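Handout, section B. The chain below has 372 residues.
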Amino acid sequence: MRKKKKSKKIFIIFIFSFILGFIGYYIYDTYQNIEIKSDYTAEKEEYINNSTQTVESIEEKSENIADIIEQTTESIVGISKLKNNGSSIFSKNSEEQLGIGTGIIVSSNGYILSNAHVTGEKYATCYVTLENGYSYDGTVAWSDTDLDLSITKINAKNLKYVKLGDSDNIRVGETVYAIGNPIGFEFRRTVTSGIISAKNRTIKIEEENNTSYMSGLIQTDATINPGNSGGPLILPNGNVIGVNTVKITSAEGIGFAVPINTIKTVINKFKENDKFDEAKIGIYAYDKEVIPYLSYNSNFEKGIYVVQITKNGPASKTDLKEGDIINAIDGMELNTMNELKQYIYTKNIGEKVTLNISRGKISKDIVIELGG
């Protein structure tokens, strides 16, 4: 009886051991087939995947920008006031011989935007070379030396032209690219990059014993050399937001461009009507940022300060006086001379505008009929 109990006990132990062994084997086999991924490994793989996507995105973005810049440079021209004996103004030492500058094709039928100091004043002749090497005689159709902008016409068709952006909505810190011909043939259509450093800048320019002021400018640290004058300042999408105009030679990394919105109306009128009959108000005014440079005893927070009324001009026939502060035109608030010019460009000769002015403690409205 005791022997029978002992045999039964051994059998139970055997069965129990067998079950434990089977369970152990099953756990071991399952463990071997599980893909163990620690938190560290998972995070590492996710980081690698994200990094790969970031690199690919950057490369793709760079390729897109390169394509856009390449397309834009097809609409950039070289401009000279003197004619070269060869077939192109882009020849060796041409910058010294011919005074190479830059221009921007803004219409398919040959209107070119540039600086007034590059092309000369209205009716002047200059010489234009396209990206394909063809050279044309150009006639300055419009010029404003105060803005340092001009529009030249060449006899050409089906030209590739740039897209105009909105310079009113640019932001400090945005990436920009400047395109131009800094030293002539060998460095034609050079592209430099930077950011918008500031907006609405006013600078003092002293040339040949003459002092003038330019206001409302875009400041950039993109390299702008003398031959870049008249070239575009563009955003990464290719839209032109400014026309490169001057460089402060006493400081490195400071260049300026005239906002494109200042000239858009003029460009559109030339494109639509093949002409632009400029209406004039007959005054010149300074922004409040310019006043500290001057000896005028004037302190104002808004508006523009009338420093000159053109003799026998439209404003001279009214009660407007030098020293008045223009607060608004036709109800639109003014703070820069560029804003005034931009508005007048939308008007026609013979139309009337109403200026709201301050003269000391007096505020009044003055109506002016625009002249030609």
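Note. The first helix runs from residue 2 to 33. Compare this with the example in section A.
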